[in-house]
Design goal:
The chain has one domain: Alpha-Beta Complex (Creatine Amidinohydrolase). It is an alpha+beta fold. Helix 1 crosses helix 2 and helix 3 runs antiparallel to helix 4. 25% of the residues lie in helices and 23% in strands. The chain is globular. Strands 1, 2, 4 and 5 form a four-stranded antiparallel sheet that branches. The chain binds 2-amino-4-trifluoromethylsulfanyl-butyric acid (MF3) and cobalt (II) ion (CO) (2 copies). 2-amino-4-trifluoromethylsulfanyl-butyric acid (MF3) binds next to strand 4.
C-alpha cells in the first residue's frame, strides 16, 4: 500500500475538522471521568455527541480489520494494565484508576484520531509519572516532524526518551497514516534507528501514539479479541495525536479548547 498525500486545501481542511471534533469529544467527556462512572456510560455519551451534535460517525463501531471480530463500541477505554483497545463495559471506574480514552471521528469522509490519559480521582505518584512521561514521549516524536526527517528518527526520539527513564515501549502496535481510511500507510513505530525508514514530505498525515509500560514491554490479547494488556500486569499509558507534515514542520490536527498544553521543550510557532 502506498502513502496517500493530502495536499489539496479541501483535504487538509477536512482533516482539520475531523481532528478537532475528535479532540472535542475528549473535552466533553473530561468532567464525566470520575469515580463511579462506567466506561459504558462514557461510550454512550461519546456516541451520542458524535452522532447527534457533531453529525459524524464513531469510526471504531463495527470496525473490523482482517483477523478481528467487529469492534462493539464507539470509543476505546483502556484501564490501568490495559495497553490499548479496551472495550467499554459496565464496571465503574474507581479512585486511582488511570484510563486512556481513544476517540476516532469520521466527518465528511475524513478521520481524526486522538487519545488522552485520565486519572480517576487521586492518582498515585507512579501513575501520574507514567501518564506525564508518556505525554512527553508523544511530543518528543511530534517535535521531530518536518520534511526530510525519517520515520526512524521519530521512533528513536520516543524510544530513547522513554527507556532512559526506565520505562518500556510496546512494539506490536504503532501509529499510522490516516485520512479517508482509519488505518493507512505508513506504520509509525515508536522505536527505531535514526536515518531509517520513510522520509517525511509535506502532505503526509499520520498519528503518533506511543504505548508506554511501567514494567516490561511484552503484551498479550484478552479473549474478547481486542483488549491488549501488559503481560506482567504493570501499568500502561498512551497518548495520541494526528499530525500533518507541513512545508516547515508540523501541524497537530487533533487540538481543541481542552487539549493539554504541549511540554515546555516544544517550540511555540
Ligand atoms: N483508535 C485506535 C488507533 O489509535 C484504533 C482503535 S481500533 C478499534 O489506531 F476498533 F478498537 F476502535
Ligand atoms: Co490511531
Ligand atoms: Co486512536
Amino acid at each position: 500500500m502506498a502513502i496517500t498525500l493530502k495536499t489539496q486545501a479541501a483535504e487538509i481542511e477536512g482533516m482539520r475538522i475531523a481532528g478537532r471534533l475528535a479532540s472535542e469529544v475528549l473535552d466533553m467527556l473530561t468532567p464525566h471521568v470520575k469515580p463511579g462512572v462506567s466506561t459504558e456510560q462514557l461510550d454512550q455519551l461519546a456516541h451520542n455527541h458524535i452522532v447527534n451534535v457533531q453529525q459524524g460517525i464513531p469510526a471504531p463501531l463495527n470496525y473490523q480489520p482482517p483477523g478481528y471480530v467487529p469492534y462493539p463500541k464507539s470509543i476505546c477505554t483502556s484501564i490501568n494494565h490495559q495497553v490499548c483497545h479496551g472495550i467499554p463495559n459496565a464496571k465503574p471506574l474507581k479512585n486511582g484508576d488511570i484510563v486512556n480514552i481513544d476517540v476516532t471521528v469520521i466527518k465528511d469522509g475524513w478521520h481524526g484520531d486522538t487519545s488522552r490519559m485520565f486519572i480517576v480521582g487521586e492518582g498515585s505518584i507512579a501513575a501520574k509519572r507514567l501518564c506525564a512521561l508518556t505525554y512527553e514521549s508523544m511530543w518528543k516524536g511530534i517535535a521531530k516532524v518536518k520534511p526530510g526527517v525519517r520515520l526512524g528518527d521519530i521512533g528513536h526520539a520516543i524510544q530513547v526518551f522513554t527507556e532512559n527513564q526506565g520505562f518500556s515501549i510496546v512494539r506490536e502496535f504503532c501509529g499510522h497514516g490516516i485520512g479517508a481510511k482509519f488505518h493507512e500507510d505508513p506504520q509509525v513505530l515508536h522505536y527505531g534507528r535514526p536515518g531509517t525508514l520513510e522520509t517525511l514530505v509535506p502532505g503526509m498525515i499520520f498519528t503518533i501514539e506511543p504505548m508506554v509500560n511501567a514494567g516490561r514491554r511484552e503484551i498479550r490479547e484478552l479473549g474478547d479479541g481486542w483488549t491488549i494488556v501488559t503481560k506482567d500486569r504493570s501499568l500502561s499509558a498512551q497518548w495520541e495525536h494526528t499530525v500533518l507534515v507541513t512545508e516547515n514542520g508540523y501541524e497537530v490536527l487533533t487540538l481543541s479548547a481542552g487539549s493539554p498544553q504541549p511540554p515546555a521543550f516544544v517550540a511555540t510557532v
